Amino acid sequence: MRLKTFGRHLALGLGAVLFGLAASSAVGGACGVGKVSHSGPAAGRVGVAARNLRVTPTAQAADPVTEWNQHAVALTLASPPAVPAALSPVQQTRVMAIAQVAVHDAVNGITREYATYLSPGPAPENASPEAAAVAAAHHALRGLFAGQAASLDARYADSLASRGLSEYDAGIEYGRRAAAAILAARADDLSAQAQYPYSAPGAGLPGVWAPVSAAPGAQALLPGWGNVTPFVMRSGSQFRPDPPPALDSEQYAKDYNEIKLIGASDSPARTPEQTQIAQFWLASPTAIWNPVLRQVAATRDLGLSARARAFALFYLAASDASVACWEAKYFYNFWRPQAAIRGGDSDGNGLTAGDAAWLPLHPTPRHPEYPSGHTANSSAMAAALALLFGDDPGTPLEVTLSGITRRWATYEEAVEEVIDARVYSGIHFRAADEAGARMGRQVAHFVSTHALRPCTKGRARCS
Predict the structure, then answer these.
(1) Which of 55, 168, 284, 333 counts the most CB atoms within 10 A of its CB?
(2) What structural domains and CATH numbers belong to the chain?
């Protein structure tokens, strides 16, 4: 099955909604099915009458977890003018974690199948978990993307109508409470303070990261992201890897000479397929792995509670892996291959030869090299899928982005490919890719054993 993916180039316009409801029909605030007004002196009487209305579903709808995951990804991957500023990959994982945790807590606070991340409080009687999921997703995304309120309100109204749900369902307010709780918990998580001017101690010395000359004046990307409060980990440094290979080591020389050859912009050793692989993996982990999550989940017979949990655990692992990786990046401040190869004659290693004109296949990112962020995120996502569903995906995995299709038989095969891809791109030494992959797996295992555990039957919340 070909996966429908959401790259930045597919921002969906965010005007026309997925179910054919134009943004021009958006309803404001808490407008409900049938466009019942909530203002004026008769609002209370109208609201009571609306509670007794039987709403007819407008169309066969996907489950709300899957539907609103699609909305969340479209917004998260969007570029201006659809959103004020594009989110970096690590910011994307945080946003998706907030949205999916809100849905999980709303659903499982009612069904009591899995422990909630935060407690929205006791669920009211007769609350629909489907209505709670829709309301939680809508409220969370409205909080994260205030500029898209009108479009989100339209999608919310359509989402309820497509399921025959009234906005007066008891699950609506419960879902909003679940979303409000996670938004409040993350309001002061230091993510808003993560971008600031930064210069690595010792910048200019061999082995120390500094922005490359091809991007003069470019700021380091989010040097404070390693200080962002994790969702599940105890601290950003909990899974900090060992240092990168020493400059005078044989391992460093091996990685150096590998990327110098195959990662060069004009490499004669890189095959056309390897060049395509490098291009494909320039997309963010969310853009690549969310379609894999959806495809694998579609092959399982998951109830609403289990589906909400799977999507939440997937992004809790990814978001915490982002924090762990960024903490390590700015702790080690290791130089990128472009700077390393241009300064190769100064590294004290007799097995490396410098090339002052060397350029990578793809532009050097604006943050330190070790460990690799993409492999950390990809490995965390892959490990989360394996822990949730087993090592066998149960279906061939296929993703198409920017006209390039990649296929894998296993999650690990995809992780091995991104490790290679960052070398082919000329932006990561292999040691950084492998360290990131190990870190991602460690984070995913920790999250899986410490969050959203199955509940003892009948308990409102468990841990």
Answers:
(1) 284
(2) 8-34+49-189 (1.20.144), 216-450 (1.10.606.20)
